[in-house]
Amino acid sequence: MLPFFLSPVSLYAIYVRRCFAASGLSQQTLQLDNETTVHFWGPNPKFSQATQKKPSLVLIHGFGPVAMWQWRNQVQFLSPRFNVYVPDLVFFGDSTTTSAERSEVFQAASVAKLMEKAGVERFSVIGTSYGGFVAYHVARMWPERVEKVVIASSGVNMRRGDNEKLLRRAKLEKIEHLMLPATAVQLQTLIGLAMSRRVNVIPRFLLNDFVQKLYSDKRKEKMELLKGLTLGRDDTPNLSPLPNKEVLIVWGDKDQIFPLEMATELKELLGPKTRLEVIKNTSHVPQVENPIQFNNIVESFLCDDS
Fold first, then answer.
1. Are 88 and 35 in contact (CB under 8 A)?
2. Planar angle of CA 41, 47, 50, nearest 5 degrees
3. Residue range 236-260, pLDDT digits in tens
4. Under 8 Å CB-to-CB from 243, ≥6 apart: which residues?
5. According to the UniProt entry, where is the signal peptide (predicted)?
């Protein structure tokens, strides 16, 4: 393992934290109950008068590094218009629980409790990949609190066989080898599926640094989260529509984790107020590959009062 002062990941993390702070966010921790504690980035309490004038927005990360690594471009772009809250889901970063619950439904309940504890009555939510599962459940279970929903690159409608197809595309035997890479080779495979551009020249030492710094923490619990998913257990999509909710689906046209046809089906399943936006030449992380277009699409949707 590289020492801190030689670690590109550790040094870049300093930059990302400064970007969040410059956007008016601060690191905070709330104890939700006697079992669960959640770490999050949220509006700096010093600027409470300014936050009262803006709507609230929750960004929910995917299954990978902690939230700040996945949402930097969106935080910087959206924070002038919204009170942005960026939680680390349970068992990511400093968020933890002694509960035996491991489902994405439990993650959704934790997000809802966090917003209640933070004093936020209504908010919109954006979730990417695994975070899209969580965002869907937040909107389904607390429709009176959620205003608009953005589901990005998230196969909420996945079936039991979809993981098997994904593993065949990845040429791996277990889903944790892809979602929780333990070696540079496994991380290279994940990057190859998640990004549309070929990145075969990443130095091995940098891949190892990523694995050690971003994927090694709480591996046992994260494997339990993968096994605890309630979505994707059946041969048909196991989800209820959100008929009265404005929903935006954003997808990369070259997504190899959740292929584009899943987005088309999901649009029909979620209800008449759902629309789909496809970003060309991106894969599973369009918010990273084309943040300008992603951000403009999302902002237009969230700010449209018509």
1. no
2. 105
3. 888 999 989 999 999 999 999 999 9
4. 271, 272, 273
5. none
CB 3 within 8 A of CB 64: no
Q: Determine whether 116 is exposed, middle or buried from the number of CB atoms within 10 Å of its CB (0-12, 13-18, 19+).
A: middle
The DSSP bridge pattern shows strands 246-252 and 146-152 to be parallel
On the CB side of 120, CA atoms within 13 Å amount to 28
Tens digit of each residue's pLDDT (9 = 90 or more) over 207-247: 999 999 999 999 999 999 999 999 988 888 889 999 899 99
Beta strands in the chain (DSSP E): 25-31, 36-43, 56-60, 83-87, 96-97, 123-128, 146-152, 246-252, 274-279
Single-letter code of the amino acid located at 176:
E
Q: Position 185: which residue type?
A: V
Owner of token pair 């599973």: 284
pLDDT of residue 284 exceeding 80: yes
- 57 near 124, Cβ under 8 Å? yes
pLDDT at 126 over 60: yes
Q: What pTM does this model have?
A: 0.95
Task: Label residues 157-179 b or e (16+ Cβ within 10 Å = b).
Answer: bbbeebbeebeeebebeebbbbb
- Output the pLDDT for position 38: 98
Contact present, 244 and 271 (Cβ < 8 Å): yes
Spell 206-225 as b/e; 16+ CB within 10 A means b: ebbbbbebbbeebeeebbeb
The pair of structure tokens assigned to 245 is: 């909710």
Tokens 């039991």 found at: 160
Residue 165: partners with Cβ closer than 8 Å, 6 or more residues away? none
For 303, other C-beta atoms within 10 Å of its C-beta total: 11
